């Protein structure tokens, strides 16, 4: 497997704040890579460094073999970016916007028109090419943003929280497009998100907190490593059940209408259920979602 | 650089209300003279031949001077907006150099300012025509356009230093209003310079844009002045010229048009160098 982005021992601080603290990771060519973290975890700083907009204080970053800080112009041609906020000109039409951006990459007229057609095909925006960017819906804007990022045929597509603020349908559409770009066009996709559910389709996930990597692996790995099952039960005789729990030293939490017990494995629910069978009116075993996993990782490795 | 300038121009003229408001200052000024200031100034001087023509030409010269500053300033809003709304971020990820982007902003702003000045010049012609005065001659127009080019260049250089310090559109809009108001006083176009105390007169003469006003007055008022003072002694004409800011006198020396032009060019060069170095320093 070939690596396309390599980050080695990168640190960056702003005054007293260590935004990125001795971070190292790599991204495999053609993979879907997710960078996960809450707001202020340092995601944007890392992205800015990869984009050559910021210089790291120490450490090195290479993109497709080119070094950040030395070969910035080449790197910029290798990466297509979708920013978190809309960055195109709201008063200009989609076509005008795309054409101007294509010009900034030094494309000739024929190439520009071809590129716009090609990108419009991928994200399906032919019907809105003539409309003003500012008048589009959130989902439409996002699609145009992706088209803009693809204009210069980059090898890497970098998306900063691409689905924040979108309705579920648009969100799904965007994910479909991103998946399509990775699989059909062989692009490397690097995205940041704070919804771990969105990282579920990634090949590799890195979770960062306060500028450091606190967990990494495939989504399945992370889930297995950090997930926990919980047994939830309701009862008709609260006092009796509580007394038994206390007598047997069972760790339980009260929840609306019932009690939950953390389980080491799913199977572990059976003896508990058998033991308190007479008190239980209903029960369910809850598998933790990726969101729970994220919160767990985040709390466990808390500084 | 031109590609980027084209985008800025497109963006500026697409916002029709912004274009209107940048010209509004000009319209307000004209209205102010027509309804109020014009009479005030006319009452202050004795009657003489071609009085209306002469004073109207004086007013036009002033209005165009203010336009050259306010519209160029307004055009720089594209740059400030881009910085404030993250649009700039997107340009920074393209292979274009930052100096090229900056050049693009300056070129587009200067073009907009110049275009607006030409429009004001045409409006001035309409005003002359509407009040039954002779239109500007071809030579006058060409000379005025030349001065306006210089005006926009000088104003643009000073503004480009200023805009570096504005990070939000609101702050810039507030500053623009303030400058738009102040500029009329700083260039001595609301009230004849002769009626002001000596220290204010020196201040006005020191301010480079005032020389634009003086140059324009020399061009536009030449014909009416000849007619107005045909029968009058030379001293009377001279004192009128000094009083109305047609010519400046510093320490007894009368500033020739050539000196004014040199002074403006020098200012332009100094301010462009200043902005470039401040920009370089700020980026670090």
From TrEMBL, chain A:
Q: Which UniProt keywords apply?
A: ATP-binding, Nucleotide-binding, Transport
In what residue span(s) does the ABC transporter domain sit?
5-235
Show the InterPro entries listed in the entry: AAA+_ATPase, ABC_transporter-like_ATP-bd, ABC_transporter-like_CS, ABC_transporter_ATP-binding, DrrA1/2-like_C, P-loop_NTPase
Q: Which domain of life is it from?
A: Bacteria
The protein's matches in Gene3D superfamilies, at most eight in alphabetical order, are given as: P-loop containing nucleotide triphosphate hydrolases
The reply on keyword Zinc is: no
Protein family: Belongs to the ABC transporter superfamily.
**Protein name per the record:** ABC transporter
* Species for this entry: Sporosarcina ureae
Automatic annotation (TrEMBL), chain B:
Tell whether Transport is among the UniProt keywords: yes
Q: Where in the cell is it found?
A: Cell membrane; Membrane
Identify its protein family.
Answer: Belongs to the ABC-2 integral membrane protein family.
Query: Where's it mainly located?
Result: membrane
Q: Which PROSITE patterns match?
A: ABC_TM2
Which keywords are on file for this protein? Cell membrane, Membrane, Transmembrane, Transmembrane helix, Transport
Which InterPro entries does the protein's record reference? Answer: ABC2_TM, ABC2_TM_bact-type, ABC_2_transport, Nod_factor_ABC_transporter
Membrane topology is: Multi-pass membrane protein
**Stated name of the protein:** Transport permease protein
Enumerate the transmembrane spans.
20-41, 53-79, 100-129, 141-165, 172-193, 261-282
- Outline the extent of the ABC transmembrane type-2 domain: 17-282
- Protein species of origin: Sporosarcina ureae
């Amino acid at each position: 497997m070939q690596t396309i982005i390599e980050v080695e021992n990168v640190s960056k601080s702003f005054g007293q704040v260590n935004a990125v603290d001795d971070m190292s990771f790599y991204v495999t060519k053609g993979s879907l890579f997710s960078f996960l973290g809450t707001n202020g975890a340092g995601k944007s700083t890392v992205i800015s460094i990869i984009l050559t907009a910021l210089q790291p204080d120490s450490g090195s970053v290479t993109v497709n073999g080119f070094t950040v800080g030395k070969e910035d112009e080449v790197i910029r041609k290798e990466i297509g970016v979708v920013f978190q906020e809309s960055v195109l000109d709201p008063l200009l039409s989609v076509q005008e916007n795309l054409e101007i951006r294509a010009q900034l990459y030094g494309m000739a007229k024929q190439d520009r028109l071809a590129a716009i057609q090609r990108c419009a095909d991928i994200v399906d925006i032919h019907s809105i090419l003539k409309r003003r960017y500012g008048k589009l819906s959130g989902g439409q804007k996002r699609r145009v943003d992706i088209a803009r990022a693809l204009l210069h045929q980059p090898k890497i597509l970098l998306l900063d929280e691409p689905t924040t603020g979108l309705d579920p349908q648009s969100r799904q559409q965007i994910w479909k497009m991103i998946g399509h770009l990775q699989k059909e066009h062989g692009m490397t996709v690097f995205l940041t998100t704070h919804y771990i559910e969105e990282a579920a389709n990634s090949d590799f996930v890195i979770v960062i907190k306060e500028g450091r990597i606190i967990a990494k692996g495939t989504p399945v790995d992370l889930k297995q490593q950090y997930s926990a099952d919980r047994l939830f039960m309701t009862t008709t005789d609260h006092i009796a059940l509580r007394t038994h729990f206390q007598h047997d030293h069972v760790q339980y939490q009260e929840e609306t209408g019932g009690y939950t017990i953390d389980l080491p494995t799913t199977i572990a629910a059976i003896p508990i259920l058998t033991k308190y069978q007479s008190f239980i009116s209903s029960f369910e075993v809850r598998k933790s979602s990726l969101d729970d996993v994220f919160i767990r990782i985040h709390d466990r490795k808390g500084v | 650089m031109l590609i980027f300038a084209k985008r800025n121009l497109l963006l500026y003229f697409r916002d029709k209300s912004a274009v209107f408001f940048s010209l509004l200052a000009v319209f307000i000024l004209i209205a102010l003279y027509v309804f109020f200031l014009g009479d005030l100034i006319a009452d202050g001087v004795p009657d003489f031949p071609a009085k209306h023509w002469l004073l109207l030409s004086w007013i036009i010269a002033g209005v165009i001077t203010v336009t050259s500053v306010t519209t160029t300033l307004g055009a720089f809003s594209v740059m400030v907006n881009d910085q404030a709304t993250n649009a700039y971020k997107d340009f920074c990820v393209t292979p274009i150099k930052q100096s090229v982007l900056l050049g693009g902003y300056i070129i587009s702003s200067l073009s907009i300012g110049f275009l607006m000045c030409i429009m004001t010049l045409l409006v001035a012609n309409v005003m002359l025509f509407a009040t039954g005065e002779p239109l500007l001659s071809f030579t006058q127009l060409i000379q005025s356009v030349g001065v306006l080019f210089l005006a926009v260049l000088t104003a643009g250089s000073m503004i480009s230093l200023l805009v570096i310090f504005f990070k939000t559109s609101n702050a810039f809009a507030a500053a623009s209003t303030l400058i738009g108001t102040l500029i009329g006083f700083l260039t001595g176009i609301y009230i004849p310079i002769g009626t002001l105390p000596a220290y204010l007169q020196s201040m006005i003469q020191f301010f480079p844009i005032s020389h634009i006003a003086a140059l324009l007055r020399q061009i536009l008022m030449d014909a009416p002045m000849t007619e107005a003072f045909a029968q009058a002694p030379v001293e009377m004409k001279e004192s009128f010229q000094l009083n109305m800011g047609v010519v400046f006198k510093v320490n007894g020396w009368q500033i020739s048009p050539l000196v004014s032009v040199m002074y403006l060019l020098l200012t332009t060069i100094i301010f462009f160098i200043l902005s470039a170095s401040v920009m370089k320093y700020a980026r670090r």
